[in-house]
Amino acid sequence: MITKLNTVALYVTDQERSKQFYVDKLGFDVTTDSDMGGMGRWLEVAPGGGGTAFVLANAEAFGKTDRIGDSADVTLRCADVRALHADLSGKGVPVTEPETQDFGTFVTVTDPDGHEFLISQE
Questions:
Q1: Residue 81 lies in a domain
Q2: Rounded CA gap, 89 and 77, in Å?
Q3: Is the separation of the CB atoms in 68 and 114 below 8 Å?
Q4: Cβ neighbours of residue 62 under 8 Å, at least 6 residues apart?
Q5: Which Pfam families does this chain map to (predicted)?
């Protein structure tokens, strides 16, 4: 039986730049950072206390340069969308204005490689 979703791969052009974005701007933690030999660096980041991590995979090393900025639709959660918007805007993160629909309030964030994430309020 499957017990959890472990990782979601994001193919990126620059792992260090992506790490800085997710850690310094979004507040994620580095959960794994190790050498994979010929395949380069295995780098995982996750929200504090989160059970699922993003693998910031070097697109060139994995032969996935055609997938940079193109990944699964991922939705993240936060306690207060408006406070998050103010924080991220202050850090220069590309983030949309908060929007409220029937299903809740949310913003959309874009990372340096063009991956977009909807962040909704709990």
A1: yes
A2: 17
A3: yes
A4: 11, 39
A5: Glyoxalase (PF00903)
Total number of domains constituting the chain: 1
Residues 6+ apart with CB under 8 A from 115: 10, 69, 71
| Domain region containing 110 | 7-121
E strands in the chain: 7-12, 29-35, 41-46, 53-58, 74-78, 99-101, 104-110, 116-121
Q: Say what the pTM is.
A: 0.87
The domain that contains 68 carries what CATH number? 3.10.180.10
From the list 78, 88, 84, the residue with the least C-alpha distance to 47 is 78
Task: Compute the distance between CA of residue 22 and CA of residue 31 in angstroms, rounded to an integer.
Answer: 12
Q: What is the dihedral of CA 24, 70, 33, 108, to 10 degrees?
A: 30
pLDDT in tens, 83-121: 999 999 999 999 999 999 988 999 999 999 999 999 999
